[in-house]
Every structure is written in C-alpha cells, then in structure tokens.
Amino acid sequence: MSEVRIAAEPRTTFGKGAARKIRRADKVPAVLYGHGIDPKHLTLPGHEVLLALRTPNVLIHLKGEGVDELALPKGVQRDPIKGFVEHVDLLLVKRGEKVTVEIPVTTVGDVNSEGLLDQQLVSIAVEAEATHIPTGVEVNVEGLEIGTVITAAQLELPQGATLAADPEAVVLHVINKPVEEPTGEEAEEAAAEGETAEAGEGESAEAPAAE
C-alpha cells in the first residue's frame, strides 16, 4: 500500500466556533492518538483528506510543524447532507507494526443459474503490517451450487494478512431463488381461467342425458 502524504498544521483553538472557522477555510480538524502519546490536535487540507479517504485503510504520512508520523483513519465524521469531511480521528502507527483492520470482501463470477448468492459479510477483520494493508479479499463464486457455504476460514487472504475474525463466520452462501409471485394482471388472468374451467365442468355435469 502506498502512502499518502498530507501537510499537517498544529491546532490550538477548540470548540464549535473554531471548528466551523477551520471548515470555512476548506480544512479539516483532526486528532492523532496512539502509542501512549498525548493526543495531537491538527488541521489538515480538506480536499486532500477527501481524496485520501476514498481508499479504504489509507496510510497517511502526516508532515508538518511538530509532526512527522504515519497514521490510519479510525473515525471519520461527515456532513450528513453534503458529505464533506468534518473531523478525522487518526491512529498513530509504526513501520513493521501489526494492526487489525476491516478489508472489503468482493465476489467475481456467477453462481449456478438456479441459485442466488446471499453475501452475509461485506468486510472481514484481518491483521496485517501497518504499511502493507491489503486493499481487499476476492472470492470466486463461479458455478457454486445451491447450499454452498463459504466461511471466513475458507477465504484466501492476501499474503501477509491473517484472519482476525471468527473463522466460522459465514461470509456467503448460495440459496434457492425465491418463487416469483404473479403480478396483479397475471393473478386476475389465472383466476378468470379457473372460473371458466369450473363453469365448463359445471355445464357438462348438468347436460341432460340423451334419450
């Protein structure tokens, strides 16, 4: 995983008013913590943070006055309407250190045509070296038969990653396709055909016997 370098400025003003002022300048308040250090309050460039966070578990190299550290985003607050980043919590990490993170689970291929893929987990917890976090894990589901179950223990994790989740957790399984209910028009047509058939049978039963 490549590092994203972001300029960091120390932050000395706090409170809602100070945070709003920082955001108006297209910047983001942030806190760096971990490894027993006192939390460092920082200000980061908003656009660069937004771009960096598009990559899951992005490794950020913070560089600026009083800070030259590697960090992983552990908490991101976004505006619920506009979506821009309002605050970031950053976990301090060191090269060679193992960290536990969630990585996405994606599938390739199509299951048996009579089955339906039911994916229970879209991400899985793994342990990996902080500077070599995998971008995700891929599962080939091509041709899987109905009833097939794949657990966390069966995932082929990227090199250097070890499972940190329950090995028996169901990641996905293949189920029967649900029976399609007839539409309103189809139901009415079926009912009408049934009534016609019943009427025909009734007329046959009531026909007078031949003399």
Tag the structure with descriptive keywords.
single chain, 211 residues, alpha+beta, six-stranded mixed beta barrel, four-stranded mixed β-sheet, 3 helices
What does this structure look like?
This protein has 211 residues and is α+β, with helices and mostly antiparallel strands. The protein is built from 3 helices and 13 strands. The chain has a 6-stranded mixed barrel. Strands 10-7-9-12 form a 4-stranded mixed β-sheet, with no helix packed on it. The termini are far apart.
What value does the Rg take, in angstroms? 29 Å
Helix content: 10-25%
Indicate the mean pLDDT.
Answer: 88
CA-to-CA gap between the ends?
95 Å
Write down how many β-strands occur, each being a DSSP E stretch of 2 or more residues. Answer: 13
Beta-strand residue percentage: 35-45%
Largest sheet: 6 strands, mixed, barrel
In N-to-C order, the SSE pattern is EHEEHEEEEEEEEEEH
Count of DSSP H/I helices: 3
Find the structural class using helix and strand composition.
Answer: alpha+beta
From the spread of the alpha carbons, the general shape counts as elongated
Low-confidence stretches: none
Strand line-up in the sheet with most strands = 1-3-2-6-5-4
